[in-house]
Amino acid sequence: MSDVLAGTGLVLAALASGAAILLPPGRLRAVLMVAAMALFPVLIAGDQWHTAQIVDLRHDEGRIVALLALAAAVVGILAYAFRRWPIAMPLAIVFAIPFRVPLEAGGDTANLLVPLYLVIAAAVVATLLRDWRGAPPGHPPRALAWALAAAVVLYALQALYSEDFSKGLQNVCFFFVPFTVAYRLLREVEWDRRLLRWVLIVVGLEASAFVLVGTVELATRSLFWNDQIIRSNEFHTYFRVNSVFWDPNVYGRYLALVTTIAAAAMLWARTRETFWLLTGLIAVLWIGLVPTYSQSSFLALLAGLAVLAAIRWSWRWTLAAVAVGLVGAVLVVVLVGGSGKITSDRLNVDLSGRGSLVSGGADLFAEKPIQGYGSGSFQAAYRDHRENKDAPVTVSHTEPVTVAAEQGLLGLLVYFGLIIVALGTLGRGLFTSHPVGGVVGGTPPCRARGGGSPAATGPAGPAARAAVLAAFVALLVHTLAYAGFFEDPITWVLLAVGASLAHAAAGDDPVIRKPA
Fold first, then answer.
1. DSSP H or E segment with residue 211
2. Do 303 and 329 touch, CB atoms closer than 8 A?
3. CB neighbours of 182 closer than 8 A, spacing ≥ 6?
4. Helices 27-47 and 114-133 sit at what angle, rounded to 10 degrees?
5. Full-prediction pTM beyond 0.70?
6. Contact 427, 433 (CB under 8 A)
7. Concatenated DSSP letters for 21-81?
8. Which of 311, 387, 397 is closest to 353 using CA atoms?
9. Do the beta carbons of residue 169 and residue 159 sit within 8 Å?
10. Which of 54, 221, 292, 409 has its CA 20 to 30 A from that of 123?
């Protein structure tokens, strides 16, 4: 009975969040968002009900009351702030993205986005209060909205037969449901120049602060957390830092994405002062990125910069440069070892065991090509159906391989369909002509002081869309080497911002909520 209730609740939460994307503003949509966010903690508590931490918490009523009261107070204060100053909602979501709170669950330590969950809950409350009195006009759901809703619902349905139902449930509750709601909230915002400028300031300051923390770690040769990285640093000649992030690769991903956005702002800067300020920010971010030693983050950054170059100058020349670079990289890999040969064992070692994970994922896909082993099942299926059951690493780091093994052709169809729709939406019209104006609108790069500039609250220029598209491509490349496509809130934020900017630029998306 408990399994049936958990499965039913899981599907209902996914359906509620998926419907929130598709329905126009109104009471029904607001109630569904509240229901989805309310089911999220209930399902997690039920799933972890007999774990040691939940058992201890159940016997400490005072602590439960205090935590609930604190959460309610934070949500209430933020909801009031979002109703009073609507621009605070998107800024708060962007600000909260990097912060994770380590909590033990099921014998493992989970780094949960608790601050982000509280911000999203507050935004839902504020939306409920607004829509209950009279919702603003909406627009029909676009192809991207349908693709996201399909991905969420399919993942929940495929968790029902997963070999690790608990993991699938946690992924739906911790990632798909709240991030779907966040997408809908951000999709309604008009991303004008002023808001985009504030977003750039927020992420620039945050990333600089994280770099400062990472620099201190590098100087003192000590990390705040993650025993695995601490032990690894003891046996390597180099020292990897993770700043306030659990994983150096996640830290590197964040810096690579912010660097890509800052580079876009620099390429279309309106004044020399802005150009050099952004150049300094990029230098700081690079200083922070290097000691992560995250190869996937370096590749992601190069991919993002290539997209910017294609939009800003010429996609043909950029494509040629990328081809030459790929050939050069292959030659380096072949010749650097001196043997001139590439073997599967050598590649597996160079890629930290990812070769075995890819081949293992392919084997799992071949065994159940249609439906896969179920959402969240990769680790359990890999251990149970591979010859090496004691493999030290059993979490896939390649998103398409993960999707194929867990969700089969059904999941792959939705996954690649979503990517195609997302790239088409975010990139519509960007490669037909050279964009003009900065990330916040304006004149060509490095214009001298004294020239006119558009109003600070006017519509965003095409360069803002270039920044979002480049960051999305960078993130997509990173997930090919480190997975985490749906599990990263940045994915959903970029899609929401990019879709809003694209439809606003085409003139077919009415303004629903304007930050003020």
1. helix 193-220
2. no
3. 93, 116, 120, 123, 489, 492, 493, 496
4. 150
5. yes
6. no
7. HHSPSSHHHHHHHHHHHHHHHHHHHHHTTTSHHHHHHHT-HHHHHHHHHHHHHHHHHHHHH
8. 397
9. yes
10. 54
DSSP letter assigned to residue 136? P
Question: Is 43 in contact with 9 (CB distance < 8 Å)?
Answer: yes
Q: How far apart are CA 135 and CA 26, in angstroms?
A: 5
**Cα–chain-centroid distance for residue 11?**
23
Burial class (CB in 10 A: 0-12, 13-18, 19+), 359: middle
**What does the DSSP assignment read for 115-183?**
HHHHHHHHHHHHHHHHHHH-PPP-----HHHHHHHHHHHHHHHHHTT-TTHHHHHHHIIIIIHHHHHHH
Residue 232: both structure tokens together: 């690894």
> In which region does residue 420 sit, left (phi positive, over 0), alpha (psi from -120 to 50) or beta (all else)?
alpha
Between CA 84 and CA 186 the distance in angstroms is 17
DSSP states along 381-434: HHHHHSS-TT-S--S---HHHHHHHHHHHHHHHHHHHHHHHHHHHHHTTTTSS-
| Distance separating alpha carbons of residues 322 and 418, to the nearest angstrom | 25
Structure-token match 């294609």, residue found: 310
Position 460 scores a pLDDT of 63
If one counts every other C-beta atom within 10 angstroms of the C-beta of residue 282, the result is 18
**Residue 111 identity (one-letter amino acid):** N
**Which residue's entry shows tokens 């030693």?**
293
Q: Under DSSP, is residue 153 helix (H, G, I), strand (E, B) or coil?
A: helix
Q: Can you tell me the distance from the alpha carbon of 162 to that of 23, in angstroms, rounded to the nearest whole number?
A: 29
**Three-state DSSP class for 103?**
strand
Nearest to 229 by CA among 294, 295, 296, 285: 294
DSSP letters along 243-311, please?
A: TTSSSHHHHHHHHHHHHHHHHHHHHT-SSHHHHHHHHHHHHHHHHHHGGG--HHHHHHHHHHHHHHHHH
- Residue at 325: amino acid letter: G
Contacts of 140 (CB under 8 A, 6+ apart): 24
Q: What is the pLDDT along the chain (516 residues), one digit of tens a residue?
A: 577 888 899 999 999 999 999 988 888 999 999 999 999 888 888 887 777 667 766 777 777 888 889 999 999 999 999 999 999 999 999 999 999 887 664 455 667 899 999 999 999 999 999 888 776 766 777 899 999 999 999 999 999 999 889 899 999 999 999 999 999 999 988 898 999 999 999 999 999 999 999 898 888 888 877 667 777 766 677 788 888 888 888 999 999 999 999 999 999 888 888 899 999 999 999 999 999 888 889 999 999 999 998 888 877 777 887 787 777 766 665 566 544 555 555 554 445 556 667 777 888 888 899 999 999 888 888 888 765 555 545 566 788 999 999 999 999 999 999 999 999 999 888 876 544 444 433 344 444 334 444 445 556 677 899 999 999 999 999 998 887 899 999 999 999 999 999 888 877 665 545 554
